[in-house]
Amino acid sequence: MLRLPILYSFRRCPYAMRARLAIAAAGVSCVLREVVLRDKPAALLAASPKGTVPVLVDIDGRVIEESLDIMLWALKKKDPLGWMPAAPVERAQHAAWITDCERDFKPHLDRYKYASRFTDVDAAAHRDRAGFFLARLDRQLSTHNALFGEHRMWADIAILPFVRQFALTDIDWFASQPWPHLQRWLDDFLAWPLLEMAMTKFEAWDRVGAGVVFPDACAYQEPWHDQ
Ligand SMILES: N[C@@H](CCC(=O)N[C@@H](CS)C(=O)NCC(=O)O)C(=O)O
C-alpha cells in the first residue's frame, strides 16, 4: 500500500492554511486529518505534544510541527510556481517580512479578533496597531502585484492567510481603509483557485480511517504558466 505523509490540519487556521497552500502548490500528496482543536486526537498529541496545528508526520516518521517548516519541506520537494527565491539574500528578505508579521501584526490581530479571550483588551486599539503593518504592506505592494515582484511567492503565501483573517473580522472597516494595493492583493488571493483548493471542507478525522488525500489528484497550474 502507498504510504503518504500525514498532515494534521484545521481548515480556518492561518498557519495550517499556509502549509496546505505550499503542499497544494507543490502537488505533494498527503493524508489530511482535519482536527477539532477543542478535542485533539491522541495521535496528534503523541506525534507533537505541543498540540498546535499544522503538524506533518513524514513517511519516515519525522515530525514537522511548525507551519513554515512544512512550507519549506513541501517547496524543497517541488516548487513549480517558483515561490522560493534562489538567492539566500532574497530568502532572507522574505523571512524578515514573515518575522515582522509574526511580531508586529499577529499579536494585535489576535487581540482584535478574539478580544474576549483576553482580559482588559481594547479591540479597536489593537486593530489600529495592526494597521501599521498593513500600511507597510500596502507601501511594499504599491509598485508590484506581489511583495517581491509580479507573482506571489513565499512571503506572500506565508502572510496572506493572516491578512485574510484580519479583513474578514470586519470586512466593511477593512474596505474603508486607504490601502488600495493591499486590498487588491487580498482580493486576488481570495479569488485564487489554489486558495479554493486549500480551503476544501473536510469532515473531522474519525480517528479510525487514514484521512483524506490532499491535494486531490489534478495538478494545479498557475494561468501564467500556460503562456
Ligand atoms: N508556530 C505554530 C503556530 C500554530 C498555531 O498556533 N496554531 C493554532 C491554530 S491557528 C493552534 O493549533 N492552537 C492550539 C489550540 O487552539 O488549541 C506554527 O507556525 O505552526
Kindly, what is the distance between the CA atoms of the first and last residues, rounded to a whole number of angstroms?
A: 38 Å
Into which percentage range does the β-strand content fall? 5-15%
E-strand count: 5
The CATH architecture designation of the largest domain is 3-Layer(aba) Sandwich
Unreliable stretches: none
State the CATH superfamily name of the largest domain.
Glutaredoxin
CATH domain class name of the largest domain: Alpha Beta
Instruction: Give the strand line-up of the largest sheet.
Output: 4-3-1-2-5
**At the third CATH level, what is the topology name of the largest domain?**
Glutaredoxin
The average pLDDT value, as a whole number, equals 94
Q: Structural class given helices, strands, pairing?
A: alpha+beta
Bound molecules: glutathione
CA gyration radius, whole angstroms: 18 Å
What pattern of helices and strands is seen along the backbone?
Answer: EHEHEEHHHHHHHE
Number of domains: 2
* Secondary structure tally, helices: 9
The main pleated sheet reads as: 5 strands, mixed
Q: What share of the residues lie within helices?
A: 40-55%
Globular, elongated, flat, extended or rod-shaped: what is the shape?
globular
